Amino acid sequence: MTDSTVPGFASLGLPFPILRTLEELGYEAPSPIQANSIPSLLEGRDVLGMAQTGTGKTAAFSLPLLARTQVDLAAPQVLCLAPTRELAQQVAEAVKTYSKYIPGVNVSAIYGGSDYGSQLRELKRGPQWVVGTPGRVMDHLRRGTLNLADIRAVVLDEADEMLRMGFIDDVNWILEHTPRSRQVALFSATMPKEIQRVAETHLNDPVQVKIESKTTTNDRIRQRYWFVGGAHKNDAMLRICETEDFDAMMVFVRTKQATEEVSDFMAANGFKCAPLNGDIPQALREKAVEKLKAGQLDIIVATDVAARGLDVERISHVINYDIPSDTESYVHRIGRTGRAGRNGEAIVFVRGREKRMLRDIEKATRQPIEEMPLPSAKQVNEKRRERFEGRILDAIHSEKNKVYREMIEEILSKNPVDSLDVAAAVASLMQGEKPLFIDEKADERMMSREREPREPRERRERGDRPERGERRERGDRAPRAPKALPEGRAKPLKGHPEVEMTRYMVAVGYDDGLKPGNLVGAIANEGDLDSEYIGNIEICEQFAVIDLPNGMPTAVMSKLKKARVCGRPLDMQVYKPSEAPEGSGNGGNSRPPRKQGGRNFEDRGERRERSDRGDRSDRGPKKPHRGKSDGKPRAPRKNDR
């Protein structure tokens, strides 16, 4: 990689390992808040940033502070305070992603609603980064389980939100317990007097960065979102393209690789489609745009930077295949449609963990984004029938088809067959082996399950656990009998018995600290698979098995083999008990496999309202919860920019 691949970020002075990660993530140019904050933070200056949510603040402070992190010092060096546990999770995951090529960086997320045991274990490992909510951070400080003596930088993310939630006194208390020499970065969408007082008290001659909000959208653009459900994004986009009446379409993805993959998929399904990314020579990019203008292309799949300056009036639809990482990018993307007084359509694909960004976009644009259902199999089949019939009618030409007509007449004269049967056989040959229609019954079963109201997450997770204050008696418990290796056959998927499942083995287990949630999150992210379709999980000492839908695409399996969980690649392969790692079974004194049914672990937003108000009750001298962690997976991660 050369500096030219990420010119904007390279010019800010970021080191090569971080630039390498940004290139893989598809970040090609810094947002305004990043361009104005990163150089000052790299120099060690305090920064007072005023910018709307969703403008890329996470990368604005994470990248420069990662560059200043001392990896050989196993002690907290950067403390980031966030108003909610959801944001704390997002920031922690983002820092882990950005530090991919910086060996030795450990990140710990501490927040209310999570068991103390896992947090204490993480803190004992000496993470350089601690991301947490104010209440839980105070609790750990009072218990002596968090030491801020080596803190070199403190980040206050969404300070005005912490003020609104009543955490500002906690923030002041925490800052008073950090070294006076530490660097401070304070980011807030607004600057009320209380936040100004925090800045005046704790920041030293800060560089002030103010990003004016320009997020206004054309009211002639109808905005909708599809909540990513059981269908793969590619299948969803194909259905939308087959049922929407569009002239030309722009599809935005996050990475250069995705432009090729999505474009190839759509082209294989009959659409005239081309990719547009920074690796494609300028001459070919210009040629693709000219084809789009001339009606020789239906769809262009592009990254943000590759699409800059593109102005084609006939673009009627913009699809955000990957939700953008900031609100400005969203506005720029959908601005490709609704030109010259025309109406436009903008659709964004949203996963459960991305609903926060959807709300940020609505807040910044001051326009609601309505949810849209995925077109049904019946709707798709009706369109396919119309197009197929149209192709046949368009092909009727007496002169061009003269030779074929003679061949058909000869077939009919020599064979006792009906002329309609011959016509149907020719139509079948024209279609090929690929089915023309979607199975409507199977599709309706899938759709109806997506529409079914789900039992509240809290109730599902609690099950029959003892009430608070009860103790599980260990002394009378019978010893466990040795258990064999997991069976080789996959179990039926709960709620979707019609889906055929295959059992896979991954090269990560108990010894690596694997929990079901780690595995579900990685597969939901890397495999682009809704967690509702992730089946039984059994974790052994050195490996784990997981049931996934049969016929996973080769490209997806390739990504899953390389995906890393607990610091190790999954190396996923079809499970065969005879090939399981030696000594990793469950006989003898080894722990039995932990089983996890095929539940939906995707964060659908149910838990967000609980945020971290509960942190305030965690400050007293309560003892840490002594029961074992319930092993429930956390929400899949989000890599925020």
From TrEMBL:
Keyword Ribosomal protein attached: no
Pfam families in the cross-refs: DbpA (PF03880), DEAD (PF00270), DeaD_dimer (PF25399), Helicase_C (PF00271)
Domain Helicase ATP-binding: 38-209
Keyword Hydrolase on entry: yes
Domain DEAD-box RNA helicase Q span(s) in chain numbering: 7-35
Top-level EC class as recorded in UniProt: hydrolase
Location within or outside the cell: Cytoplasm
Catalysed reactions, semicolon-separated: ATP + H2O = ADP + phosphate + H(+)
Positions of the Helicase C-terminal domain: 233-380
Composition bias type Basic and acidic residues, residue spans: 437-479, 486-496, 600-641
GO MF term (any one): helicase activity
Top-level taxon: Bacteria
Key words of the record: ATP-binding, Cytoplasm, Helicase, Hydrolase, Nucleotide-binding, RNA-binding, Stress response
EC number: 3.6.4.13
Cited SUPFAM superfamilies: P-loop containing nucleoside triphosphate hydrolases
Region (Disordered): 437-496, 575-641
Intervals of motif Q motif: 7-35
Family the entry assigns: Belongs to the DEAD box helicase family. DeaD/CsdA subfamily.
UniProt function note: DEAD-box RNA helicase involved in various cellular processes at low temperature, including ribosome biogenesis, mRNA degradation and translation initiation.
Protein name: ATP-dependent RNA helicase DeaD
Source organism (scientific name): Thalassolituus marinus
